[in-house]
Fold this sequence. Notes:
Radius of gyration: 18 Å
Number of helices: 7
Helix content: over 70%
Low-confidence stretches: 1-8
Order of helices and strands: HHHHHHH
Mean pLDDT: 91
Strand content: under 5%
Structural class: mainly alpha
Number of strands: 0
Largest sheet: none
Amino acid sequence: MMPEPVSLASAARPAASRAKDLGARVIATAFFSGHSRFAPGTAGSAVGLLLFVPLSWAPLPAQVGACIALFFVGVFAASHVARRVGLEDPGIVVVDEVLGMWVSIIGLPFTPAVALLGFLLFRALDVVKPYPADALEHLPRGWGIMADDVVAGLYANLLLRVGLLIWPFA
């Protein structure tokens, strides 16, 4: 018995689906740092800090645009991976930490002190989840995964700005 011929459209669909899965996984896990056995959120934040280095030289509007773009791409990727693994907010998804890290230091002088303090403040605030981060975490799918970290990043950024006004360490 001869196998049924496969059309080009049906043959391409699984490849396109695999490419979409891989792309979403690379983005959602921040280049697989979310698979870290030790503190995947911290690993994702560290990747975020490293990815911000070239962005730190860009003008503020470009930094804001990159954050907005990463937010929407992150919502898609986080939603896709969460659906694929069957969890609401899987620990491997750390694109939210990347964005939160970016928001923590956007528009500030990119110095080692600011980078370190931004990292520490963001990690602490991401764990504590001050209002409204705790409420936004309950938004559906990738929206909740991403939104709470944006708020934690905003709080970290504001605290850094106040710190720079009081004690200009940068």
